[in-house]
Amino acid sequence: MISFFVRHPVASNLMMVLLCILGIGVLGNLERETFPEFTASTVGATVIYPRASARDVDEEICSPLESALTGTNGLAELTCLSTDGMATPTAELEEGGDLTLFFNDVFSAVSGINDFPTDAEAPTVEILARSDLVALVAVSGISSKQGLIEYADQLADQLQALPGVADISVSGITDRELQVVFDEDTLYRYGLSTRDIVDAIQARSLSQPLGNAELDENSIVLRYANTRRTKSDLEDLIVLPNSSGSFVRLRDLAEVRMMDTDENVASFIDGDQAAIISVSEIQEGRQYSCF
Asked: Exposure winner among 178, 190, 257, 276, fewest CB in 10 A?
């Protein structure tokens, strides 16, 4: 073949021109997409286990789920994430498998588990569609860091409500947390230890469900809510009564500070602190409303 084209250079030039013409002819029919679609291949479930620690969730929820789902036809990989109060198993379908049949098998396996704790809620099973990052929204110009966090969270909630939006995440700015710095001399004067202060904060600053109150026509959900969310609220927390009949508050024993959770996380635009909102779309729907 090579010797033929060496002896006939015109033929090689004609062949090259022909290939160029064929390439240009099919160029307009090539499918081009900025965010190409992928077929969903993952089925996920969620099991709510109120007031349970991550260890309890792993032992009492994830273990039965893994036992039930192991061996499911078409299962390529199985993971189960346990957090406080919730388990999230994820089952991935092997390549070329039937997603509908796989979903039905996973749903049947999860529904057939009858040894969950009595406090655990009924599991939900769904096909986890892939999502694509379609926009990055930068928010800046707000003087206080806490105000920037609150505004970015509010804007993220509004974007999450738009049709077709699969996921919203806020990055580039760290969360804020309350930090309590003890005064050892003051604690010694009151006969307290740091453990006593920690126990007092946990006992007097909490939020937990108390059950339901059944009435004639409806029921009322009862909940104890006394979470200290601000610096002043935490400073006013009563630690113990003193001999004079008044109360010793946390501000009398320690300094409460509002601190960054991670000082290494920060983003800036023209020197101003900024928050970055990532918007991901659902592949089945790509229409958005703007405001």
From this structure: 257
Integer Cα distance of 129 and 44 in angstroms:
10
Structure pTM?
Answer: 0.46
Cα torsion angle, 280, 281, 286, 289, sign: negative
Residue type present at position 134:
V
Residue 194 CB partners (closer than 8 Å, separation 6+)? 182, 187
CA distance 134 to 128: 18
Strand 131-140 and strand 75-83: pairing?
unpaired
226-273 per-position pLDDT tens digit = 555 677 777 777 777 766 667 778 778 778 777 777 777 788 888 888
Nearest C-alpha neighbor of 123 from the set 72, 77, 64: 64
Q: Phi-psi category of 191—alpha, beta or left, where left has phi over 0 and alpha has psi -120 to 50? A: left
| 86-93 β-sheet, strand order | 75-83, 86-93, 42-48, 124-128
How far apart are the C-alpha atoms of 75 and 53, rounded to whole Å?
A: 28
User: 80: exposed, middle or buried (C-beta count within 10 Å: 0-12, 13-18, 19+)?
Assistant: buried
Dihedrals φ, ψ of 195, to 5°?
Answer: -65, -35
Angle formed at CA 61 by CA 59 and CA 62, multiple of 5 degrees: 75
Instruction: Decide: 105 and 72 in contact? Cβ < 8 Å.
Output: yes
Provide the residue type at 161 as one letter. A
